[in-house]
UniProtKB/TrEMBL annotation:
It comes from Streptomyces sannanensis. This is Prephenate dehydrogenase. The lineage of its organism: Bacteria, Bacillati, Actinomycetota, Actinomycetes, Kitasatosporales. NCBIfam families: PRK06545.2-1, PRK06545.2-3, PRK06545.2-4. Its EC number is 1.3.1.12. It comes from the Bacteria.
Length: 361
C-alpha cells in the first residue's frame, strides 16, 4: 500500500491516518467538516489536498448511519482499488450496500476494537490500535486483493486481525461493547441526584464501572441505532437477572428464615455466574486469565513517586503485571495497587518495605 484516502477524520479515522503516515503511506484526508480535516493534517495524519488519481485503499470512518451512503459515493466515483469501513456495526451497512446494487467485490467491512471516551482528531494517536483486535468480515465475494489491503492496514496499525461473520460480530459487540456502555451510563445516572455525602464516598469500584459513561452521547446514539436488536436482547437477559436479584434482596428483608435463605441463594447464584463470566475475559497477551496478588503501597501525590516505585520493583526482580491507583479523598496521597504473580508478592512486599515504602494489607 502506497496511498490511502481516509474519509472521516474523527478519533478512529485520524488515528489510522497517523499510523499509516508514520509508516510511509501517502494519506489524503476528507471530512464533511473541512476544519476537522485540516486539524488532522496539522497533526501529521496526512494532507487535506485531493489525491491525483485512484488511491490503493479508501478507509471510511464515519458514523454507522452514514457508512453505506459514503461508501456508495466513493465506489461510484472509483476513488480507490479497495474500500473498507471501520464502523462498530457490520451487518446493516453491508445490507444497505447490497440494496443499492453495488459490486461489493472491492469492499470489506472491518471494525478496530479500540477507542476512547474522547472523540475528534485531537484525541487521536498513532498507537491507538496497537495490540488490539481488528475484526474483518469478508464474504465469498470479497476480492483477495482487497482482503490483503485490509490485512496490510491492520499490520501497519499494529493491530491483531480477527475474521468473523458480520452478524456474529454485531451480536458479539452488543455483548462486550454496546451493552456495557448503557449499563455504565445507567449506574452513573444514579449519581446525578445523589447527595454530596454519598458522592464523596466514591471509590475505585464506582470509578471502574462508570468510566465509559463519560463517552459522547450523540456518538453512542448513532452506534446503538445501528445495532438495536442484539443490544436489546442482551439487556433483556440482564433485566431478568435484575428482577430476580431484586426479589432475592427483598426476601433477605423477610422475617421468614426460609425466604431469607432463598434470597441468599439467589444473590450467590448471580455473583457466582459473574465470577464464571469474568474468568472468561482474556488475560495478558490474550492468554487464559491469571489471578494476581495485589501489593498495595501508600504513595504521595508527588512528581517521580510512580517512577521510583516501579524502579524499586524492577530492582527486586519483580514484573508488575498490572497497576491501579486509588486516590484518597481529601488527601495528597493514595494507594498504588501493584498486581504481580502470587509467588512474587512476598518478595516485592519485603523489597519495598526495605526501601521505605509503606505496605498496606
Amino acid at each position: 500500500m502506497r496511498t490511502a484516502l481516509v474519509i472521516g477524520t474523527g478519533l478512529i479515522g485520524t488515528s489510522a491516518a497517523l499510523a499509516l503516515s508514520g509508516r510511509g503511506v501517502e494519506v489524503h484526508l476528507v471530512d464533511h467538516d473541512q476544519a476537522q480535516a485540516r486539524t488532522a493534517a496539522a497533526l501529521g495524519a496526512g494532507t487535506d489536498e485531493p489525491a491525483e488519481g485512484r488511491v490503493d485503499l479508501a478507509v471510511v470512518a464515519v458514523p454507522p448511519a452514514h457508512v453505506a451512503a459514503t461508501l456508495a459515493d466513493a465506489m461510484r466515483r472509483g476513488v480507490a482499488r479497495g474500500y473498507l469501513d471501520v464502523a462498530s456495526v457490520k451487518g446493516g451497512p453491508r445490507r444497505e450496500l447490497e440494496a443499492l446494487g453495488l459490486d461489493l467485490t472491492s469492499y470489506i467491512g472491518t471494525h478496530p476494537m479500540s477507542g476512547k471516551e474522547r472523540s475528534g482528531p485531537l484525541a487521536a494517536t498513532a498507537d491507538l490500535f496497537e495490540g488490539r483486535p481488528w475484526v474483518l468480515t469478508p464474504t465469498r465475494d470479497t476480492d483477495t486483493e482487497v482482503l490483503n489491503l485490509a490485512l496490510e492496514l491492520v499490520a501497519l496499525c499494529r493491530a491483531v486481525p480477527v475474521v468473523m461473520d458480520a452478524d456474529a460480530h454485531d451480536r458479539a459487540v452488543a455483548l462486550v461493547s454496546h451493552t456495557p456502555q448503557l449499563v455504565s451510563s445507567m449506574v452513573a445516572a444514579r449519581l446525578e441526584e445523589a447527595g454530596e455525602a454519598a458522592v464523596r464516598l466514591c471509590g475505585q469500584g464506582i470509578r471502574d464501572v462508570t468510566r465509559i459513561a463519560a463517552s459522547d452521547p450523540r456518538m453512542w446514539v448513532e452506534i446503538l441505532s445501528a445495532n438495536p436488536g442484539p443490544v436489546a436482547d442482551v439487556l433483556a437477559g440482564i433485566a431478568a437477572d435484575l428482577d430476580e436479584t431484586v426479589r432475592s434482596l427483598r426476601a433477605l428483608e423477610s422475617s421468614d428464615e426460609a425466604k431469607r435463605h432463598e434470597g441468599a441463594e439467589g444473590i450467590e447464584d448471580v455473583l457466582r455466574r459473574g465470577n464464571a463470566g469474568r474468568h472468561r475475559v482474556p488475560g495478558k497477551h490474550g492468554a487464559a486469565p491469571t489471578v494476581y496478588e495485589v501489593v498495595a503501597v501508600l504513595i504521595s501525590d508527588q512528581p517521580g513517586e510512580l517512577a521510583r516505585i516501579f524502579a524499586d520493583a524492577g530492582r527486586a526482580g519483580v514484573n508488575v503485571e498490572d497497576v491501579r491507583i486509588e486516590h484518597a479523598t481529601g488527601q495528597q496521597a493514595g494507594l498504588v495497587q501493584l498486581m504481580v504473580e502470587p509467588k512474587a508478592a512476598p518478595v516485592l512486599s519485603a523489597a519495598l518495605r526495605e526501601r521505605g515504602w509503606s505496605i498496606r494489607q
